[in-house]
Design brief:
The longest helix has 19 residues. The protein has 406 residues and is of the alpha/beta class. The protein contains 14 helices and 14 strands. Helix 4 packs parallel to helix 5 and helix 6 packs parallel to helix 7. It is globular and about 65 Å long. It binds P-hydroxybenzoic acid. The site of P-hydroxybenzoic acid has 11 residues, from loops.
């Protein structure tokens, strides 16, 4: 039956029958209903750490652009974005609520900052909306909602193996971390790893999140003469200030080594750090320079889209892989999503083709399982790069959850 004949039929049918007929026709072959899956993104699009979100956003959009043809026929995906403006749990919660209630999103995604993700997690549970965490790295977040799935990393995951590695090489360490939840995780994870490796933590300092002046803290470190300083601060401008201050206060000349999580040497800040970053060792699940085939093609697609001078950082990969997990869930359900089914698919996600190497979600904890690499900042051609020199953890599950298992 063609369209004009149905219009005629509808014209002579009573109202309810006409409506029923219209509903049937809406799903007739050849007339696949245009369906849009909406992903509500709550992230930090403005402020001093907005570059992290910018990379997540570009990673998500590059994935969407290059995988459009992989969606079921008639299905489209739309991002509905909201800016939480920084570590601001109240704003994140209000925006997530609005995305759930008014925008009727089928997934929540984004979340650079842990306090924001922690504030939104209970809402995702209440509303049964799967929440894909693309950065926030405090271990406990995924325990706050059975609907939270993390595709980024945890500070325990990157730091505990680094602590063990360093504990076998150095005797005395000092730790410096940003004064909020992921910093507390990094501090505890490093100390446990360093002790397990055979070393001793001789001093600790927690620095205000907004600080740009690390000199007073560096003086304190210098006085206690450790062999090594371990640091975690959120990736972004703060990381530049930290490394510069390490050199300017002469800690390197005093024979102290700087090591950190990969957040302290993100690729986009290396040029600004200059020689201050050379020789620094960090641990992370990704480096843009990694020579894996999946990473080579990811970086090539990235440069084609965003320019030869641009390189992805670790948050870009979380955006990319997060979309791969979401697209997998959409494909498996042929676009007709149920929250329970989406969650089941997300928590069983695995990929052999991530730019960071093989990854999977641990269905029990909903946290990512991945390799952790030791990287050194080296000059490669005209630019500074994080160069992976050793895999210091293979298929690492969040150690905090492993240690706290009953
Ligand atoms: C976090 O808030 O969990 C966070 C923020 C920035 C990072 C890492 C973790 O670089």
């Amino acid at each position: 039956m063609d369209r004009s004949s149905t219009r005629v039929l509808a014209g002579i049918l009573p109202g309810a029958a006409a409506a029923a007929l219209a509903a049937v026709l809406a799903v007739l072959p050849g007339q696949a209903p245009a369906q849009t899956v909406r992903i509500g993104v709550v992230n930090t699009f403005t402020g001093p750490n907005s570059n992290m979100t910018d990379y997540i956003d570009r990673g998500m959009r590059l994935y969407m652009k290059t995988h459009e043809s992989g969606l079921p026929p008639g299905v489209k995906v739309e991002l509905v974005t909201r800016d939480d403006g920084g570590p601001n749990p109240d704003a994140a919660k209000r925006l997530a609520q609005e995305l759930i209630v008014r925008e009727k999103v089928q997934f929540l995604a984004g979340f650079v900052f842990s306090p924001n993700a922690a504030a939104v997690a209970p809402l995702s549970a209440e509303a049964k909306v799967p929440m894909v965490i693309m950065n926030a790295a405090t271990s406990s977040i995924t325990t706050l909602s059975p609907y939270a799935v993390r595709v980024s990393f945890t500070l325990w995951q990157t730091t505990y193996p680094l602590g063990q590695w360093a504990g076998r090489r150095f005797k005395r360490a000092y730790t410096l971390v940003a004064d909020y939840s992921p910093g507390f995780d990094a501090e505890a994870a490093f100390e446990k790893g360093f002790r397990d490796g055979g070393g001793e933590v001789v001093g600790k300092v927690r620095t205000p999140m907004s600080t740009q002046d690390y000199a007073p803290f560096m003086e304190r470190v210098k006085e206690s003469k450790p062999d090594v300083l371990f640091a975690f601060v959120p990736a972004g401008r703060t990381a530049i200030a930290l490394l510069k201050s390490f050199r300017e206060t002469g800690l390197d000349k005093a024979g102290i080594r700087f090591i950190g999580t990969g957040d302290t040497t993100p690729e986009d800040e290396l040029a600004g750090m200059g020689d201050a970053a050379l020789g620094v060792y960090t641990s992370m699940h990704y480096a843009a320079s990694a020579d894996r085939p999946a990473n080579r093609s990811f970086v090539a697609a990235w440069k084609k889209e965003y320019g030869e001078a641009s390189e992805p950082v670790f948050t870009a990969v979380a955006g990319w892989d997060g979309m791969d997990a979401i697209y997998g869930a959409i494909r498996a359900q042929k676009g007709n999503l149920s929250p329970e089914q989406s969650l089941a698919l997300l928590r069983n996600y695995r990929s052999a083709d991530s730019p960071r190497g093989p990854i999977s979600i641990d269905p029990e904890t909903r946290d990512i399982v991945q390799n952790i690499y030791l990287r050194e900042v080296r000059r490669v051609g005209p630019r500074l790069e994080n160069v992976e020199i050793e895999t210091i953890g293979t298929a690492v599950k969040d150690p905090w959850k492993e240690f706290n298992r009953k």
